[in-house]
Amino acid sequence: MRFSSETSSDGVREQFFTLGEIPGVLWSPEGAAGTRPLVLMGHGGGQHKKAPGVAVRARRFVAECGFAVVAVDVPGHGDRPKDEEYDRITTENRARAAAGEDLAPLIAGFQALVARQTVPEWRAVPDAVQRLEYVGAGPVGYWGVSLGCGLGVPFVAAEPRVRAAVLGLGGSAASAEAAARITVPVEFLVQWDDERVPRDQGLALFDALGSAEKTLHANPGGHGEIPAFELDSTLRFFARHLG
Amino acid sequence: MRFSSETSSDGVREQFFTLGEIPGVLWSPEGAAGTRPLVLMGHGGGQHKKAPGVAVRARRFVAECGFAVVAVDVPGHGDRPKDEEYDRITTENRARAAAGEDLAPLIAGFQALVARQTVPEWRAVPDAVQRLEYVGAGPVGYWGVSLGCGLGVPFVAAEPRVRAAVLGLGGSAASAEAAARITVPVEFLVQWDDERVPRDQGLALFDALGSAEKTLHANPGGHGEIPAFELDSTLRFFARHLG
Questions:
Q1: How far apart are CA A171 and CA A103, in angstroms?
Q2: Which residue of B212, B217, B227 is in closest CB contact with A216?
């Protein structure tokens, strides 16, 4: 793990790093020492490790809960090189969707393929980050919606250090089998008028989660329109389960 | 409005009253003066104005938000006389359900009948209570699940003083038409394994709400098993919209 730059603002330290080939960013309380909860955040499709939706949430987790937060670029996103195979499949899927094919299973197949790469990549992230004295081996949380849900469900299912997860904007076609293996508390977000994830598939993914404690929050609006008050709820959810 | 008794504990004053023929209870901050938000609570079927689920919530609304809270007995419940017509219909419905008839529309029909009586009764409650100096004409909220949802939906639709409502454990058969006339923010509770309200009917009632801001919270478990953390969420919801 090599750090390349560091800045601080409003009490939050932001450090860019690479872990092998993977570029990432770590947020932590400025000047703090000792073990703390770590939240790994997965970004959305076409976004990157420091997309506004990721960074705004990360800074609040640090400032209000004292957590450390880490995000890395998904293959083919952000500062990572283009991936020819993924690009080829994406182009193919667009053509198939344009020709009338149902988009949801195409996205599901693609996310399952990418997850075979990201699950081991993401499992290496807490291995490295938790060696830092100001992070330590505390409880781990996961936050990810949309692509971050499609890749997050198999990650959370595979990683026993994860104690709680916020997921959503994803459908059962992508990951019902892995969802059934998740047993930690989950807060699951559905957008009631999601133009990308059919409502019944989002509800089916919530239904498939194996967790005894899982809570579905559904709100009106499209895929990108999660209301601001859900971030307050996410903060309380993580504080309850990781704090 | 005639008060019959008054006690206080933990900073919460509890006053029993009758309004015409209707017995009720009013909770307010002990020794407080001036206008404050008022939450009207509707109890569940077979329960009453001071059932534990009502009283526990009421005391927290008062202690943590400084609200006043009022609940009255539904006809045929608590300290009200038995109602021969309602009893006859209930007995009939039980026999029809035992004979294999679908229970949901029977309950819906019964609740619609009772609501014709309770909507005007409940609208008279803030008329009276808001005349008290320590309540005043502040914003009004409504909380009610199960029977409290079946009767609450037509009440909230009819009463313009209500600015926010927590509803749930109710189905679309009972009140979809009135739900469409509700425009205030609603937090709507669904129990994912509700043995009394089919899941699709609960989701359909949420869908039918006319409110631009509405949020569905669904949790695993049966009809009576709303998790404790939902009360924390309810408090924040009312604080946000009435406070």
A1: 11
A2: B217
Q: How far B187 CA lies from chain A's nearest CA (Å)?
A: 10
The whole-angstrom separation of Cα A25 and Cα A94 is: 31
Banded pLDDT at B103 (limits 50, 70, 90): confident
3-state secondary structure of A2: strand
User: Burial, B217: exposed, middle or buried (Cβ in 10 Å; 0-12, 13-18, 19+)?
Assistant: buried
Distance CA B148, CA B169 (A): 9
Confirm if B239 and B39 have CB atoms less than 8 A apart. no
**What angle, 0 to 180 degrees and rounded to 10, lies between the N-to-C axes of helices B172-179 and B103-129?**
50
Output the pLDDT for position A172.
81
Q: How high is the pLDDT of residue B136? A: 98
At residue B33 the predicted structure's pLDDT band, cuts being 50, 70 and 90, is very high
> DSSP 3-state assignment of B198?
coil
**Average of per-residue pLDDT across B72-99:** 94
* Distance separating alpha carbons of residues B168 and B42, to the nearest angstrom: 12
Among A10, A24, A26, A30, smallest CA distance to A58 is for A26
Give the ipTM of the model, two decimals please.
Answer: 0.90
Hey, of B192, B230, B237, which one would you mutate to test binding to chain A, going by the most A CBs within 10 A of its CB? B192
Question: By the 8 A CB rule, do A208 and A237 touch?
Answer: no
Locate A87 and state its tokens.
């690009």
Tell whether A105 is within 8 A of chain B (Cβ): no
Amino acid at B80: R
Identify the CA nearest to B50 among candidates B69, B36, B37, B29.
Answer: B69
User: Domains of chain B, with CATH numbers?
Assistant: 2-168+226-242 (3.40.50.1820)
Closest-CA distance, A159 to chain B, in angstroms, reads 24
Contact criterion met (CB below 8 Å) for B64 and B53: no
- CA angle at residue A59 from A2 to A135, to 5 degrees? 45
The whole-angstrom separation of Cα A90 and Cα A206 is: 26
Whether the Cβ atoms of residue B40 and residue B50 lie closer than 8 Å to each other = no
Query: At a CB cut-off of 8 Å and minimum separation 6, what does B73 contact?
Result: B22, B23, B24, B43, B48, B49, B79, B80
Burial of B170 (0-12, 13-18, 19+ CB in 10 A): buried
**C-alpha torsion angle, residues B90, B91, B93, B98 (rounded to 10):** 140
- Which tens digit of pLDDT belongs to each residue from A137-179? 999 999 999 999 999 999 999 999 999 999 999 988 768 889 9
- Write the pLDDT tens digit of every residue in B169-210: 998 876 888 999 999 999 999 999 999 899 999 999 999 999
Contact A241, A173 (CB under 8 A): no
Q: Does A240 touch chain B (CB under 8 A)?
A: yes
